[in-house]
Amino acid sequence: MLENIRYSTLKRYTIIDIENVEIGSIEDLILDPDSLDATHLILGAGFFEELQEELGNKPNIDEIVDLDLTEIIADDTLRIKLKISDLELTDEHGVVQFPHILYTDLKRYEIYINDVVNDGELHDYFIDGNKPAFIFQFPEFQYKMSMLGYRQKLEFVFPIEKVKIDEKKIKLDITEEDLIAVVENTGMKMTGKSIIYV
Question: What three-state secondary structure class fits 121?
């Protein structure tokens, strides 16, 4: 099982199968719709093959990999513990055939804080078997905090227990006042990036 890695980092990895054959790149992350745990990866082929699929010249069939069947074997290589021919597949339209939520779909959902729509952005997903989390950025909130002297780029890490998905909405279990308090409790007023755990 993968632990302590951002999805955005994992997407840059080279993917190989059990026979050390390079098999493409990560196209999407599949989450369980109930627990919001990351469960699978969808693999895509090279640029030319993906373009052919988009144009309808070729069926859009992609491999699906259970995260439990993966391991990081180097700083930039993810190995799947099966041969590519043994992997589960999407249907010919690229659709996953079991209950799921795709990370790419979540990135298009509106974000609500305390039942009020917010300009927040889903920035990343933290894959960890013990403490998975979503990472958000809030541009308007970032601006407000910069007026108070907090100049660093703020990333907010929300454990999955504080995130609810409902009717194409991401609802966060926090108020803006709580966010301000969390930032102020860090005591940091500098440039750079600051990761805030909620």
Answer: strand
